[in-house]
């Protein structure tokens, strides 16, 4: 691996773009590939074996086509289901995985976790805290796809959000954990429903970890004059 090799940001859609933005701030001289797997989106309600086969095939292709020094999995569904599998399958790779931010300090107040169905069911951190009396969890099967399809007109999905969130509106929710990177795009819309709420998401944490990991490996790119970003929607 060379310091000039790419950092691959892998997601099912526009959530990866949000993670990429934070990585670019932390690592301004790095070269990036953003892969948005729009043809297989949404991941959150797919059968696990189908999803595993799809991800394996596409990571294999990307690794055989591009020089990649780090893969950042920007999809909580993949992180929740396949972290161990990917680490064992692609032992030649460096991986980092987004993970919902949940702390005991947060759970002193009522906290709502929003994620895909697969993430809510399978994420180890969510499962560890799920019995806390102040924690509420909601799996949303198709919301990531709806966000992608309406990315330039997000206010139009407010009725959908309100319908799904009605049971929680009067719970005095203080924190919302965005356990899907797509959901970063609907903070404004969620604010109209919950008003004084604080959001927690994972892109800042994984960006900090990426910088630390590359420094430790001696793979930080310090000689690049112009950052390259390749955006792939299909492969």
* Beta-strand content bin: 15-25%
Based on DSSP secondary structure assignment, what is the total number of beta strands? Answer: 9
Shape: globular
Helix count, DSSP H or I runs of 4 or more residues? 9
- Which class of secondary structure composition applies to the elements? alpha/beta
What is the topology, as strand order, of the major beta sheet? 4-3-1-2-9
CATH class of the largest domain: Alpha Beta
The SSE string, one letter per element, is EHEHEHEEHHEHHEHEHE
Rg is 18 Å
CATH topology of the largest domain, anyone? Rossmann fold
Count of structural domains: 2
Write the layout of secondary structure elements.
Blueprint: E1 6-11, H1 15-26, E2 31-36, H2 48-65, E3 68-73, H3 76-89, E4 95-97, E5 111-115, H4 117-122, H5 124-129, E6 135-139, H6 143-149, H7 158-165, E7 175-178, H8 187-194, E8 198-200, H9 203-217, E9 229-232
Parallel strand pairs: 1-2, 1-3, 2-9, 3-4, 5-6, 5-7, 7-8
Care to describe what's here?
Helix 1 packs across helix 9 (203-217). This protein has nine helices and nine strands. The protein has two domains: 6-98 and 203-232, Rossmann fold; 106-200, 3-Layer(aba) Sandwich (Rossmann fold). The longest helix has 18 residues, at 48-65. The model has no long low-confidence stretch (mean pLDDT 93). Strand 1 (6-11), helix 1 and strand 2 form a beta-alpha-beta unit. It is an alpha/beta fold. The protein is globular. 38% of the residues are buried.
């Amino acid at each position: 691996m060379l310091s000039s090799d790419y950092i691959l940001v892998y997601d099912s859609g526009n959530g990866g773009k949000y993670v990429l933005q934070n990585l670019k701030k932390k690592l301004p001289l790095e070269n990036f590939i953003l892969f948005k797997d729009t043809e297989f989106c949404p991941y959150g309600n797919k059968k696990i074996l189908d999803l595993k086969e799809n991800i394996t095939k596409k990571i294999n292709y990307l690794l055989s086509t591009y020089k990649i020094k780090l893969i950042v999995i920007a999809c909580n569904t993949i992180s929740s289901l396949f972290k161990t599998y990917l680490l064992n399958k692609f032992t030649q790779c460096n991986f980092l995985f987004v993970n919902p931010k949940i702390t005991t300090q947060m759970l002193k107040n009522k906290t709502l976790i929003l994620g895909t169905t697969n993430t809510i069911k399978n994420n180890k951190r969510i499962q560890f805290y799920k019995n806390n009396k102040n924690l509420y969890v909601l799996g949303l099967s198709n919301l990531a796809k709806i966000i992608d399809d309406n990315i330039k007109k997000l206010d139009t999905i407010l009725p959908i959000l309100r319908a799904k969130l009605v049971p929680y509106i009067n719970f005095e929710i203080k924190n919302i954990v965005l356990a899907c990177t797509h959901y970063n795009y609907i903070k404004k819309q969620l604010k109209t429903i919950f008003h004084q709420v604080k959001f927690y998401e994972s892109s800042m944490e994984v960006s900090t970890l990426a910088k630390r990991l590359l420094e430790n490996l001696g793979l930080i790119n310090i000689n690049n004059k112009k950052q390259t970003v390749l955006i792939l929607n299909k492969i």
